[in-house]
Model the fold of this input.
Amino acid sequence: MKRIMVTGGAGFIGSAFVRYQLRTYPDVHIVNFDKLTYAGNLNNVKGVDETRHTFVRGDIADAEAVMSAMKDCDAVVNFAAETHVDRSIMAAADFIDTDVRGVHNIVEAAKALGTKRVLLVSTDEVYGSIAKGSFKETDPMGPRNPYSASKAGGELLAMAYFHTHNVPVIITRGSNTYGPYQYPEKVLPLFVTNAIDNQPLPLYGDGKNVRDWLYVDDHCTGIDCALRHGEPGQIYNVAGENERENIVLTRRILELTGRGKELIKPITDRPGHDRRYSIDASKLKALGWRAAMEWDTGIASTVRWYKENEWWWRPIKTGEFLEYYKRQYDNR
Ligand code: NAD
Ligand code: TDX
Done:
């Protein structure tokens, strides 16, 4: 695999994947195709080896642009997506355009071009909530919010292209991911940066919803393992095996930022809020993958990164972000 198109490579996980590929495989050239939505940021790939990195500003919902950028690429790894559940509750149209129509354009282009691998980065959210135990790849999907429904739609379409047209599609379903460069609308960077600024942490409902936390570089090695060693037509869970109630996560963030629990502000719950996510990663582990980051180290180094890199997040927490924040959190 010499030339890999990475869509959404200016986002949180996509940019970590670009950095990972360039430092791990000296022969790889990355075509980074990204629309630069509110969540895309070229600061996320600042300093990468530009001789092996071509940035193309484009929209995966634009079939011609996708076809032209994918020409000569051996593989495509699709990170591009609208990704925030709360925004999908406010308005879902962009989610359908990108997470469904965009995926369709990618598999169509792969069919026409004979692309050797199409890896679709998906999410544990497509399964829905589970009270006990962990979902396996053979369990049925049960998405319950517009974001996860759009991701599930993209998955179904891509797998249909595998069965109908032999497009070599592989899907990964990852857990809640954390680490540097995450857009501060997601709970972890939102709470860390709010705590640094001594601002309230808006905790939904009773704070007892459970998420499984996966370090961003482990998510990237999981995707890379599925891309290089996985089988077309297969789905692989990428789990953190690190479940925490939101209130427990919140208290840890307060400790690491030296703030008190008076900053916790319980607010009205998210509609359709999935109670617990949990997935079983045995299938990917059978290919040799393991998560390397311990939670205690990962959360401490991530909080330190946000403390030390205000240059990165302060400019983001202005303009569009503040408008969104007001719409989302005022009067709750
Ligand atoms: P992000 O929101 O940080 O970044 C998304 C990127 O995609 C941005 O750079 C944005 O500009 C780009 N993009 C959006 N629409 C586009 C379009 N139409 N055409 C081209 N580019 C477009 O997302 P993330 O958190 O890094 O998530 C990456 C992928 O991983 C997504 O597919 C998401 O569903 C999946 N995922 C995320 C998590 C998580 O916890 N963050 C967990 C599991 C799976
Ligand atoms: O302000 C908040 N308060 C709060 O209590 C926010 C933004 C979230 N939460 C809760 C809701 C969830 O239980 O924290 C948990 C995590 O919320 P998000 O960061 O919005 O993530 P989640 O909804 O779990 O989805 C994430 O993981 C799966 C990513 O956003 C998805 O892209 C990924 O697919």
Notes: The radius of gyration is 19 Å. The chain has two domains: 3-177+213-238, 182-211+245-272+296-329. The pocket of nicotinamide-adenine-dinucleotide (ligand 1) is lined by residues 7-8, 10-14, 34-37, 39-40, 59-61, 79-83, 98, 102, 121, 123, 151, 174, 176-177, 183 (CB under 6 Å). The longest strand covers residues 117-123.
